[in-house]
Structure formats: structure tokens, C-alpha cells
Amino acid sequence: MQLYSTKRQSPNVGLKEAVLKGLPPDNGLYMPCIIQELPQQFWDNLATYSFAEMAYEIAQHLIGDDVPAEDLKKIINNAYYFDAPLIEVGDFSVLELYNGPTLAFKDFGARFMGQLIGYFLRNNDKEVNILVATSGDTGSAVAQGFLNVPGIKVTILYPKGKVSHIQEQQFTTLGANITAIEIDGTFDDCQYLVKQAFLDAELNQRLKLSSANSINIARLIPQSFYFIYAYKQLEDKSLPLYFSVPSGNFGNLTAGLFAKRMGLPIEKIIAANNANDVFTLYCETGNYAPKASVRTISNAMDVGNPSNFARLMDMYEDSLERLSENVSAYAFNDDQTANCIKDCFESYNYVLCPHTAVGYLGMQEFIEEQDLNPLYVNAIVLSTAHPVKFGEVVEPLIQAFIKIPDRLQSILKGKKKSVLMSADFDVFKTWLLSKE
Ligand SMILES: *Cc1c(COP(=O)(O)O)cnc(C)c1O
């Protein structure tokens, strides 16, 4: 597999280099040189595959010889022991992507990446430092994906007071090779500090740095798997296929477009935004104007400058017109989101997390705007997190308690350990070097 930089100012690389580096030296983003359609045989056999079997076929198709078949099988089998069921909720289907260890869809990307990096470093003598900025869910997924993987240290930066209690517990209580830094600032500050670290010559000379945000191609590749797995579960595959994707950094949506390029017959992907609507505004006006993120109840989507925007632009050669053939975007405020959670519970006895509710609203708006009959389409909403992770928001709305899954109980009892830090790059750099 060969990958190029979206800025095209640095050479193409193989998968190992792209994954370990995270970012190309020209500060673009890595993209696969070729995304070919899956062979007909794959689609003919799809019904017989388990999730892991299907994931292996897709990964093998994309990655080729960069990882030998037996190793790739092991990576997939270690990463995926949980399912992604498609559930009918009202007029739409909801793809539940929250059955992994951290109860959110990021487990799909992070676990694959953790295993893959562990594989690439299996004979390495120098420890690799993974730096992650998180607005909530990335941190816990990455921490779990790398927990106890030999040769890897993980540093997680998160905005103080801006993630939920459960999220914080999930990445501050693990210990071992995982360290959490609490930044006095916003998620964008955290993301900036990580980006600066990758661009800092001295740091890169002294430490082996790697990223694990959705900018790492190792997280995007596996996120394409479940779009195809949703399709596998559809009763009538002949109906037009739509996905609504609750979006923040747009890794999930970009992965859906990879699936489309691999031959999944998606008519349209709906980008569902909360009040952080820079992408929706871009689709409406053609003007991309990043801004500071604002806080919402769907906080994992509070992103003011989505990191995968460059990949989207690259895929559509900077043409909004071409992008719009495949992608529609809508934005919703917290009141609309809260009402959607309430309505879905009252009408269908189904509990949405706030992010999934934004996705549900996106699908509703699209179906209405296009005047489609929901009975004659396959309308799939990606459910990105278990509602219990946002119990503080959801429980008062539905006036009921959400049962905490067993795998979360023990984490809630753990003791928080974090390093408090101001949003100052020199402070962060000094800290990193002191841990060398
Ligand atoms: C990260 C996250 C999102 C946004 O996904 P992107 O790939 O960044 O667009 C949506 N919902 C939840 C629960 C998340 O954790």
C-alpha cells in the first residue's frame, strides 16, 4: 500500500511509515494512493462473513502485502471481539457502534491502530510516544487500544472540565503505559499542542513521536469496515442507501467515503453537526471559516477546525460541487438535540446518546428536504456512543435511569491520576523531554 500527502510536498510512503509517523513532513495528511473497488466475490460472500472475517477481507484488499495474511488476521481478531448490530428505530436504522470496551465507535479505529502499531514495532528497541488530543472519546479509545502494548507510551491531552465524568475516568485511571494531561484550555488548544509537538525539530530528534487522532490513517481504514457491515445486515439491499454520520473531526465520514470508493452503493452521506457548524456553513456558502469550538451536549463533536477537512477537499479536488454530489450537511442546536432524545424515547422506547441524536436529526432533515418516503430507502444513522456515557444529559431528558454495563462499573471505581498543565507549548515540551 502506498500513501501520499494531501499537500503533495513530501514523498509517498508505505503503510508502516504512514502509521508510525502519523503526519507527513509537509504537514498534510496521508491518503491511500489507490482505493479500488472490492471484487465481486467479496460482495457475493458478504452474507457469510462474521464482522472479523469481513474486516479481514477489506483490510487485505486495502493494505495488500504491507502486513502478511496471518499477522493481519491476528490483528483483526485481537481488535474485534464485539458486534455492531443494526437496530430499527422509527423510520430509520441505527447502527450501534458502542459495544467495544469504551462504549464508543472510536474503539473500532483505536483498537486496530493499537494492534497494527504494536505489530510494526515488535522488533523495535526505542520506545514510541503516542500523543493524543481528545475532546472526550478519543482518549479512552486510544488508551484502551494501547494499554500494555509493549514499546509504546501514550500521552493524552484533554481540556479540563470539558469531558464527561465517565470519559475522564476511562483515560485517567488506567495507569501502566498511559498518562493523562489535563490542559487548562479548550480541545482546540490540546490539538494545537500535539500538532506543534510533531512539528518541533528538537522533540522529534530526541523522542519517537506518533499520533493517534483521527488524522492517523490507521484509524480511518478500519472505520470503513462497519459501513459495509451495516449494508450486510440490510434486508432489502436494492433500496437507495443513505448514512447519517454525527461529525466532529470528520474521520468517520471520510471512512464512509472510502467504503463508497470500495463499491458500497451509498447514494449520500449526511454530515450531522452540532452548533460547531463550520462544515455545514462551508457546504452552504463555499466558504471554509474555522472558528473556536463552542461547548454543546454532544461534546465529542465540539470541533472548530475539523482535522479531516483536508482529506475531504483532496478526495473531491477542492470542488464543493463534486463533494455535494456525495455529501449533504446539516447542523442542530442543543435544544433540537435534547428534543430528539426525548421524542425517540417516548415514541420508540429507544435511548440515543446526544451525538447519535444529532445524526438522527440529520437523517430526518435530509429525508424531509428530499421528500423521500422512508419506507423505500435504507436510512442508517451511525450510533457513535452508548447513552450511559452521557447520563448527566440524557437521564433528565428521558426521566429514567440508564443501566451501566458491567465493563464500565470497575472503571468508575478507579482513582483519577492526571497532570495539570497550562495550554503553553514550552511547558508541554519541557514535560515531554523530562520523561525521556
Ligand atoms: C469522536 C466522536 C464523534 C465524531 O467523530 P469524527 O470522526 O471526529 O467526526 C461523534 N460521536 C462520538 C460519540 C465521538 O466520540
Give the key terms.
436 residues; 6-stranded mixed beta sheet; 20 helices; 44% helix; 17% strand
How would you characterize the overall build of this protein?
By secondary structure, this protein is an alpha/beta fold. It has a domain at 82-102 and 220-398: Rossmann fold, CATH 3.40.50.1100. It contains 20 helices and 14 strands. It has helices at 15-21, 40-45, 51-63, 69-79, 106-120, 137-146, 165-172, 187-199, 201-206, 217-223, 225-232, 251-261, 278-285, 309-315, 320-326, 334-348, 354-369, 391-398, 406-413, 425-434; strands at 2-5, 13-14, 30-32, 86-89, 92-96, 128-133, 152-159, 178-184, 208-211, 241-246, 266-273, 327-331, 378-383, 419-422. The chain has a six-stranded mixed sheet with strand order 4-5-13-10-11-12. The longest helix has 16 residues, at 354-369. The two termini are 33 Å apart. The protein binds pyridoxal-5'-phosphate. The site of pyridoxal-5'-phosphate has 16 residues, from helix 12.
Q: What is the structure about, briefly put?
A:
The protein is built from 20 helices and 14 strands.
